[in-house]
Structure formats: structure tokens, C-alpha cells
Amino acid sequence: MTDQISQARGQGRDGAVVAWILYILSIPSANLLVVAGLIVAYACRGSATGLAAQHIEAQINLFWSVFWVSVVLWGLIAVSAVASVILIGIPFLLLFGLLLLLVSIWFTVKSVLGLLALFNDRPA
Length: 124
Description:
Elements: H1 2-9, H2 13-24, H3 32-45, H4 50-83, H5 90-119
Helix pairs in contact: 2-3, 2-4, 2-5, 3-4, 4-5
């Protein structure tokens, strides 16, 4: 019975749990642990099966989607900072900074929900 449950969960479940936890710790670590979580996800990607493989793919996709949104927002913040010299960019600087904060919070919430889904044997 236990073997059937572990086969349904798939190989690599521990790696998926570790990666979700590192993603959750992104805000307190100034996003340094996100890179560690991505490395763990990529390392476990080849050997993971079943539900764990689906979670690892979700982790990798989540990282890259948030990465590119953050790159765009940082670019807009840079343009707004330059425009704030003539006072036009200040509202945009605040807006894009708030959006960057919301993306960071959304990433953390999505990571918590992914970890809970993994513990409940549901897809991410």
C-alpha cells in the first residue's frame, strides 16, 4: 500500500518540497534563495516522475514568468527614475514600485499554495 502511494506521488518529491520552501523564503532572503530553489528544481527535473515532476515544472515556469515581469518592471522603474528629475516620473515610479512589490507577494503566495498542493497530493 505504501509503495503504491509513493509511486503515485513520484520520484523527486523531496526536491519539489525543498524548492517550494526556498521560493517561500524569497522575500526574507532578498530573493537570493529563489535562485537556489531554481537550481534544486532543475537538478530534480530529470529524475522526477508523477506529481513531483508536475510541481517541478510549475516551479520552473513560475520562476521564469516572474523573472521576466520583474525585468520589465525594473526597466520601467529606471525610466521613471530618470523622468522624475523633471517631476513627471514620480507617480510612475511609485506605481511600478508598488507593482513590483505585488509581484513579489504574489510569487510568495503562489509558492505557499504550491507547497500545500504538494502536501495534499494535488497538482500545482
